[in-house]
Every structure is written in C-alpha cells, then in structure tokens.
Amino acid sequence: MQILLSLVCLAALLAAILGLIKPAMVLFFVKPEKQTRLKAFGLYAGVFVLGILLLPTVTKPDTSDKYLAQLKEDAKQTEQAQTQPPKTEMKKATPEQIAADRETVRGLYSQLMQFKDDTEFHQKGFGAGLPYAHKWLQNVKEVDSRMSLKKGYSLALASSAGYLQQLGKEYIRSHGQENQQTRDFRKFVEEGLNK
C-alpha cells in the first residue's frame, strides 16, 4: 500500500508539472475550452498533497529506534552483570544433615499414619482449627524447603516431603481410606526414606 500511494504521489507531481506546460495532456477528460493550466496544476497538486498526508498512515513504523534501545538495554544489563559480585554457590548438606532430615520425614510420616483416620482431621484438614495437623503441615513444608538436589539430597529423598504432603491431602479427601493415590504416595515416601 505504501508503494502504491508513493507511485500515485509521484504521478500526481509529474502531472501537475506537465499541466503547467500542456494542460490538455493531463486534463483529457475535461472539455477543451475548460482545460487551463491552473485547473491542471490545482487538481494534481491537490492529489499530490493528499497523498503525502496519507502516506504516514500506511507507512510501517520505524523499528530501528526500538532495536537501538534494545541494544542499549542489553549493554546496560551486561555491564551490571559484570560489576555485580558473583553469586555464591549453594552449600551442600552434610551427611549428618541429610540423615537428620530423613529422620524428620520418617517421624512426620509416622505421625500422619497415627492421625490419618481421625474424623476431626477429615473435617478440618490442616487448618489452624486443628493445631496438631496444622503444625504437622508446617513441619513438612519446612523440611521440604531444606531438601533439594542442589544441596546433595537424592531425588527420592528430596521429593519425599512433597509426596508426604500430597499423601496427607489425599487422606483428607479419602477420609483416611487407602486408594491408588495414597498407595502411590506412600510408596514414593518410603522409597525416599530407604535411599
């Protein structure tokens, strides 16, 4: 569209100039007695001006400024990254910490098995209205936040607290009854405790 409008503007400019020289060539659709230089120039100059005014509306926006701004932003981020101190690596957990967290998960698993059949637990869940269940969930989340592969925990152990939390939620839903999900979650928790 931009190219077509540019060609129309160019043709109108040429016709306006030609109309000043020989109006009959550009005003062939007008009666010969009304073909004047002023009419020829006025008509085609008007078309030229209108085309020039419409040209910005069909022209694609210039993205070179955006590209330049993006390059400047990238350079700024690179400079900041070079001036910032390097991030310290995450400390690996000691074998004693790993063993302690395994025993914590084992204790939490044992606690869940003790209160999973409690009808009050099925009704209130892990809310603050049931302090022992609420505290149990907070302890599970805390131990889960400490265990990760980056700290040296095995995948099975690092994921065991998450599976334990899912197991507790499934026991609320199933009212303490075993189903396929609880069996799967128990299996994953036990695998984490044994590795």
What can you tell me about this protein's structure?
The structure is a single chain. The chain is mainly α and 195 residues long. The protein folds into 2 domains: 57 residues; 100 residues, no CATH class. 74% of the residues lie in helices and 0% in strands. α1 packs antiparallel against α3, α5 packs parallel to α8 and α7 runs antiparallel to α8. The chain starts with a helix and ends with a helix. The relative contact order is 0.08.
Summarize the structure.
With 195 residues, this protein is mainly α. It has helices at 2-21, 23-26, 37-58, 64-83, 95-115, 119-124, 131-146, 155-174, 180-194. The longest helix has 22 residues, at 37-58.
Features:
single chain, 195 residues, mainly alpha, 9 helices
> Which value, in Å, is the CA radius of gyration?
40 Å
Number of domains: 2
Contiguous helical run count: 9
Helix content range: over 70%
